[in-house]
Amino acid sequence: VQLVESGGGLVQPGGSLRLSCAASGFTFSNYRMSWHRQAPGKAREWVATISDRGRTITYADSVKGRFTISRDNAVNTGYLQMNSLKPEDTAVYYCQIPSRDLWGQGTQVTVSS
Description:
Blueprint lengths: L1 E5 L2 E3 L5 E8 L8 E6 L6 E6 L6 E3 L7 E6 L4 E6 L8 E7 L4 E2 L3 E5 L2
Parallel strand pairs: 2-11
Antiparallel strand pairs: 1-3, 3-8, 4-5, 4-9, 5-6, 7-8, 9-10, 9-11
């Protein structure tokens, strides 16, 4: 049972990245999924949540209009499309299955010129 994030990296302000979260060992389509992030020296922050079938989506105010959460249950993968990135988006990004308290290992996103 695990979640594995990928897609992080270094990007300039205003740029885009798409993070992926590959699930294995459980029935991914039965669970809502969340993305969180943790910047250096700060508490972990919730970013977005998508319901099991993708019909209900919520975002933190700090990313609303710039980030898009989605999922493809056929390939057991969740996504976070991040556009118009800002330096304050720099953090380690984690995906989570809340009801199982299951977390991935995280992927680093750095926004810098």
